[in-house]
């Protein structure tokens, strides 16, 4: 009887060990509001799963550092890798490293340049960036009544998200309802609040006239708001929009400063990426592109989103 109990216990232990998975996660940058919510969402979800361990690293916006982290994950024989790319144009080499090592790889949030040719055992989890730019620009157009001067603040140009959000916003402004809106300036502020503030300060100092700010993310939109207010501008004369629906952005909206943002489900992307990675480890089928929906946030529905990001 004792032998049977001991044998059963060993069997349970071996079964548990067999299902234990270690997932290496390389985030582009820890010091980013949205990516922090994504990372926390992934880590919180992992704690709900038995036998799943995350090894999370900060690439500090350094492509070489991120590639080194992936090589280290492979050397330590992790079961799967999740990457939030620093540079979406550098992902083909990362895909090759993981494919050669036969380790599943999931890109999260930022679309890899090779998304349409990902090797077997690899996937991309995010939200469709063209939807974000479209929702944002349509709301700006509606608030302006289809006429005005807009400036566009772009994220890092090495990121597909920045390029896709910008292009989709421009496409909206070409439509019949919105073609009365002119884009008078378009520059990058690299997703950063401080750079966004500096950029708008420069535009104001140069005498550029605009009454709308279309920012690729909330941090830059908040920077624009800070600069406009510092210059003594009345926020009622400006339409300011961003993307992400971060806590700071929602607070700015409730204060009457931010007119629109687009909810990007950071925690949902983190959870979806981990789910996809674990399914690939088990040999289960996963779609190459897994999209978490974007949603428009305005002062009318902002209360519905306060607890989400």
From TrEMBL:
Chief location: other
Transmembrane segments: none
GO CC annotations on file: cell envelope
Gene Ontology molecular functions: carbohydrate binding
Location(s), subcellular: Cell envelope
Coiled coil: 42-76
Keywords: Coiled coil, Signal
Signal peptide: 1-20
Top-level taxon of the source organism: Bacteria
UniProt record similarity statement: Belongs to the bacterial solute-binding protein 2 family.
Name the record gives this protein: Sugar ABC transporter, substrate-binding component
Species this protein is from: Agrobacterium pusense
């Amino acid at each position: 009887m004792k032998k049977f109990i001991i044998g059963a216990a060993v069997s349970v232990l071996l079964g548990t060990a067999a299902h234990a998975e270690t997932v290496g996660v390389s985030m582009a940058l820890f010091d980013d509001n949205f990516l922090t919510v994504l990372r926390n969402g992934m880590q919180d979800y992992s704690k709900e799963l038995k036998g799943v361990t995350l090894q999370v690293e900060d690439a500090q916006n350094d492509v070489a550092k991120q590639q080194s982290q992936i090589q280290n994950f492979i050397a330590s024989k992790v079961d799967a890798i999740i990457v939030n790319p620093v540079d979406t144009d550098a992902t083909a080499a990362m895909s090759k490293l993981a494919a050669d090592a036969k380790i599943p790889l999931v890109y999260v949030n930022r679309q890899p340049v090779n998304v349409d040719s990902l090797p077997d055992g690899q996937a991309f989890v995010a939200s469709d960036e063209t939807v974000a730019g479209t929702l944002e620009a349509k709301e700006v157009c509606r608030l302006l009544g289809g006429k005005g001067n807009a400036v566009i603040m772009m994220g890092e140009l090495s990121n597909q998200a920045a390029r896709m959000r910008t292009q989709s916003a421009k496409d909206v402004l070409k439509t019949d309802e919105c073609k009365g809106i002119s884009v008078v300036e378009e520059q990058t502020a690299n997703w950063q609040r401080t750079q966004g503030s500096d950029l708008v300060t420069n535009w104001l100092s140069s005498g550029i006239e605009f009454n709308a700010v279309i920012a690729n993310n909330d941090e830059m939109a908040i920077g624009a708001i800070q600069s406009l207010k510092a210059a003594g501008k009345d926020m009622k004369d400006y339409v300011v929009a961003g993307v992400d629906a971060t806590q700071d952005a929602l607070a700015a909206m409730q204060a009457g400063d931010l007119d629109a943002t687009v909810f990007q489900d950071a925690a949902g992307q983190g959870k979806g990426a981990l789910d996809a990675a674990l399914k690939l480890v088990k040999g289960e089928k996963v779609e190459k592109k897994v999209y978490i929906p974007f949603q428009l946030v305005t002062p009318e529905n902002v209360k519905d989103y306060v607890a989400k990001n």
